[in-house]
Specification:
Chains A, B, C: It catalyses: RX + glutathione = an S-substituted glutathione + a halide anion + H(+). Chains A, B, C: Homotrimer; The trimer binds only one molecule of glutathione. Chains A, B, C: This is Microsomal glutathione S-transferase 1. Chains A, B, C: Its EC number is 2.5.1.18. The structure is a homotrimer. In chain A, about 75% of the residues lie in helices and about 0% in strands. Chain A is mainly α and about 160 residues long. Chain A has one domain: Up-down Bundle (Four Helix Bundle (Hemerythrin (Met), subunit A)), CATH 1.20.120. In chain A, helix 5 packs antiparallel against helix 6. The two termini of chain A are about 35 Å apart. Chains in contact: A-B, A-C, B-C. At the B-C interface, helix 1, helix 2 and helix 4 of B face helix 2, helix 4 and helix 6 of C.
């Protein structure tokens, strides 16, 4: 029993897996930050969706005017959804990639570029920077995930 | 060959990993339930998005009036998206946390509070309960994931 | 050190895990393809959300008219969100299922039907095919994930 536990927790001793764990935790925390930024803009711009969220502003018509969309809130929400669309594949494919036995230096290169590109993407979306800044950072992250998927399929292929 | 297979499937013998598997399956099934609730409200409220979904109600103008948004449908959809935004980080960070060798009792505490908070969040969103019920349950789940991420980064840190 | 690394990377030698890795990589790449299709429709239909994305079409009013929604773009985006809602549970539950020690033939059956159903679902959404084509393919994928979750809970149950 103890032996089994020791054996399976040792996955975290693998250096490539440790790097995967570090970068995945960082990029998922970054994605979670989008919720806080959305909440910040909803409160400062007074722009809500749910009637129960505006109850503290009073009853009836006085509260209803805060049920509205705001460009800044919508911008953060688009950035958040873009994170989901891109970070979910990274987390899933990255795990399989980390288990496929790549060189540590190659793996670090993939993880660092992806996480750097996604952090840049968030700044590019929220500031916002002129295009093609945001588009390029999206493409860089996309290509890294694609490159990891290629190695996973080459190593694991069993259809 | 058989030896390898036996070794890797034994991860499921680790008690912390079994707890992770149990709570992750439960909370992902809960998230999947949101699709059924959306479908239920779309059909009972007759509120659809795709023209091909209203074809059974007749052709032309008679079917077009069912291409509309409905407050109940939109509410379930917001709950579903909120699940995606919060359950995805839990599943990813929770896996790394389960492999970082925490005490079973500590791990169970994290998993139970997170899954309990997300189930409460769904009820708070759909009933809906007055704030800050929904907000607090969201914050509780968020904090649990944050706490797990802290341990993952402390254990695995390799940048 | 080397021994640890060898041990953990051997997960990829497990045939069920290799099948999981193959099908997960394929279905996540399919989901990532939705971003490219969205970009294709945004550019060909000239329908954008962010003002900075239309800057290359000129300044002021001439560019503003491209800040609009387009039915084809919205359709792809709904397909993408539906992918997220369904592929995230597959990836999470499927990993636990692959580690629960199922027969290779049973696991392959689950993975093949799920990925086949999701590929069909994308075609059904984008062409679009008349209902219940899209609805049925959604239900098939949903049922496969449910079946895997049942085995995970039966094998790992620790509440």
């Amino acid at each position: 029993e103890g032996g089994e536990m020791a054996k399976s927790t040792q996955l975290i001793d693998n250096e490539v897996f440790r790097a995967y764990a570090t970068y995945t935790a960082i990029v998922l925390l970054k994605m979670m930050l989008m919720s806080l930024i959305t909440a910040y803009f909803r409160i400062t711009r007074k722009a809500f969706v749910n009637p129960e969220d505006t109850a503290s502003f009073g009853k009836g018509e006085s509260a209803k005017k805060f049920l509205r969309t705001d460009p800044d809130v919508e911008r953060v929400r688009r950035g958040h959804l873009n994170d989901l669309e891109n970070i979910v594949p990274f987390v899933g494919i990255g795990l399989l990639y980390a288990l496929s036995g790549p060189e540590l230096s190659t793996a670090l290169l993939h993880f660092r570029i992806f996480v750097g590109a996604r952090i840049f993407h968030t700044f590019a979306y929220l500031i916002p920077l002129p295009q093609p800044g945001r588009g390029l950072s999206w493409a860089v992250g996309y290509s890294v995930t694609f490159s990891m998927a290629y190695r996973v399929l080459k190593t694991a292929w069993l259809l």
